[in-house]
Amino acid sequence: MIEVIQSYQRGAFPAEMDAMHRIRKKVFHDRLGWDVSIIGDWEIDGFDALDGVYLVAKDDNAKVVGSIRLLPTTNFNMLNDVFPVLLPEGGKIESPLIWEASRFSVDPDAEVPLTRNRLSKPTAELILGMNEFGRRLGLTHVVTVYDAFVARILRRADCKGEPISEPIRIGKTLAYAALFEIGDEMERAVRQASGVHHPVIASSTGYDLTSTAA
Amino acid sequence: MSSNNAAFDIIEQVARAEKLHEGHAILSEHAAKFGLSHVAYLGLNIPSERRVKPLVAVTYSPQWQRHYEHKDYVNLDPVVAAGIVGTLPIDWQELNRSSGEVKRLFGEAQEFDVGRQGLTFPIRGRHGEFALFSLNSPMCDREWAREKLVLIKEFMLIAHYFHSWAVKAEKLDGNDFVEKLTARERECLRWSAAGKTIWETAAILGLSERTVRFHHENARFKLNALSTTHAVSKAITYGVIPLP
Fold this sequence. Notes:
The complex is a heterodimer of chains A (214) and B (244).
Chain A: E1 2-6, H1 14-31, E2 38-39, E3 42-43, E4 53-58, E5 64-72, H2 78-81, E6 98-106, H3 121-136, E7 141-146, H4 148-156, E8 161-163, E9 168-170, E10 173-181, H5 184-194
Parallel strand pairs in A: 6-7
Antiparallel strand pairs in A: 1-4, 2-3, 4-5, 5-6, 7-10, 8-10, 9-10
Chain B: H1 3-16, H2 20-32, E1 38-45, E2 55-57, H3 62-70, H4 78-85, E3 90-91, H5 100-111, E4 117-124, E5 130-137, H6 141-169, H7 183-193, H8 198-205, H9 209-223, H10 228-237
Antiparallel strand pairs in B: 1-2, 1-5, 3-4, 4-5
């Protein structure tokens, strides 16, 4: 189940935010050894202070097991502002119809069911949730910078992206950047690949894609 | 994506207008085809060298606008409050309208023919610009629930383009030169903004003082500034460097 939390609402979801940032530290700092900013047991960076949206995956016991962060490309984001080396010919990807996905993470210690193709249920739900969110917002694409590990997941989920450039080594990781088209095709492909057929965005969040003042 | 063809047609036509109110009039004509009664653009913060009042292009009646201003509704309006914090489009139906004052605001809006339904797109950019682009419609709730998704798809793009165009039409887009500062030029300005002397900046960046002076000189030229202090001030205004 996916809960949609806008950045400005983080104060109203302290448990979810706490769990999310802890899982991000586990994945990006502890396991992958990336050079990310840590405060206490949280991985949290400057982009978390912007107007992003978080998709938070919860298991059947309402426990947070993973998340993904979405940022509009019309404002500061990782590709344009941290990894412009991945952009072709110094151009920018900046459109109200394209958002950027980052910090995709699933708790490595959580017991999560595996679906078809060895995708974990939260993984499938996060990708489907991202697609659904994008669809309701009228987005054409989501762009994302990712590593080989996520590349394998995307392949297993049958997500075909359009690469923006050749993969480039950044730090100790080979980084890929690609555009993924939002819509029926992505939904069909991921549902087929994962066998997840239920709606993933929780109606209980009251999230109807539009924002309300907290 | 055929739905975006309509959006691009509208954008193209608006772009041919030269003045804000002309482009807005073109937009309003097209909006009627979507069952909309109003399209309102409010450029609330547009960083510029000149002190500018907010850009306003609305079809609301002058009486409503006067009433809104007289009652200082901008401080009460939940649409504005939601727009300030959020990124996603705001459906007026979903706002918290429980307070008596807010109920009165919306009631009065109806009396002035604003329209039962509203959808507001917050627009925010990397130079600190902030605008609200709103649609209104007299549609009933059921029809609105059906049409909303279409409206979001069409107008998400239109809202952002209209904003960019409006800024240009009002000649407030002095940001063109902003992208041309090199990383080194920006760095040197940043340290100056933080109060460092040329000697200190040189030491911090591992450059010679002459090189730092050179970067300052280039930045002054590109920003059309009379002194480094002036250049720093412009650079901050346009978001080229962050506030120290």
